[in-house]
Amino acid sequence: MLAFPSVAQEGAVNTPPEVWPSPDVRGTPSKVDYQALESFVDWLADEASEADLPGVAMSIVSSQSVEHLETWGRRREGESGDIDVDTVFRIASVSKTFAGTVAALMVQHGIVEWDEPLLPLLPGLRLGTEAVSEGVTLRHVASHSTGLMPHAYSNLLDAGILYPDIRNRLHEVPTVCAPGDCYGYQNVVFSLIADVVETHLQTRYSDFVRENIFLPLGMRTASMSIEAYEAQENASSPHRYARGSWHPSTINEAYFSVGPASGVNASIRDMSRWAQANLGAFPDVLQPALLASVHKPVVATPYGGYFNRWPGVERAWYAAGWRVYDYNGIRVVHHGGGVRGFRTEMVLVPALDIAMVVLFNAQTPLANDVVPKFLDTVLNQLELP
Question: Quick one: where's region Disordered (predicted)?
């Protein structure tokens, strides 16, 4: 059940259900031969071994089942403790996929409208250097089409400055185009989604996500704070490459303060659930119309980014917390992410009822290659019309 707005109750204890939900299997069977994807699993294992990566977790799912679930390596270099299916990683900007869904849930329940100007919803907020920025809407924020200078104040996050200390400077961000007219990726501005939740539902964004996504989907180890991450005994450590090998690194707490942009911690088991949910496995939690709204292209993203250099990408857009591509003739939904010491990649092919997630506890360039390799493996074993 969706929690509007009961999550606002102070001191409430969230008790996980005794029985976790099973996927709704009313859909048609997948067209994919999952046995044929073992070559991708073997490739990933070989590449991870060749790079001597500390740890990797990967899943391939359909809406009906988890088809492959694999883990390799260690939680922390130089210590015992293997990665397993419940080991928690920082998923970085893949957190934006949850935020897009939060925005859609608020629209679905009549809290806000996609195309309602945002400033009246957030009294005292000012955006951009030009009056045209007063027209920024929730859709613009969720799709990085606010018209503000890209990556506004991400440098301050990198320097360890927290979101509350940055938010009141958003009126200084240059306006580079009218809202909706251009794409400009954001972390700080994107996190205004949390402000809308907290202002209108009187609850913390992290509590809203827990009550309306994590718990209903059975994402048992998912969380949204540095305290929860540090309290998790089965958490992987971040790693950096220096002097020819991988070494444990440190967490940048500032990226937890932009929860919609990069605040989620999760295991590969959790992320398998999230992937299945986005394939339509749990319609009582995420309705088909809601999924269609967050996966629908909003603004073209024809430049920049490692994903635009994948040979199969024909066109690219940003939706609501997701990237969308036409890839060798088929529609693909994707997001990647990286924070200090972690990389994550997640991709859906809804038409084929298949998705893949991979988590790394290292900032490895291998992450740039896993999605096209996976997609090419899938498409090569199909007879597409």
Answer: 1-26
Beta-strand pair 245-248/55-61: unpaired
203: helix, coil or strand? coil
Domains for the chain: give ranges and CATH numbers.
Answer: 31-95+102-112+202-380 (3.40.710.10)
Count of other CB atoms within 10 angstroms of residue 165: 12
pLDDT in tens, the chain (385 residues): 345 443 333 322 233 344 445 555 434 456 788 888 999 999 999 999 999 999 999 999 999 999 999 999 999 999 989 999 999 999 999 999 999 999 999 999 999 999 999 999 999 999 999 998 999 999 999 999 999 999 999 999 999 999 999 999 999 999 999 999 999 999 999 999 999 999 999 999 999 999 999 999 999 999 999 999 999 999 999 999 999 999 999 999 999 999 999 999 999 999 999 999 999 999 999 999 999 999 999 999 988 889 999 999 999 999 999 999 999 999 999 999 999 999 999 999 999 999 999 999 999 999 999 999 999 999 998 754 4
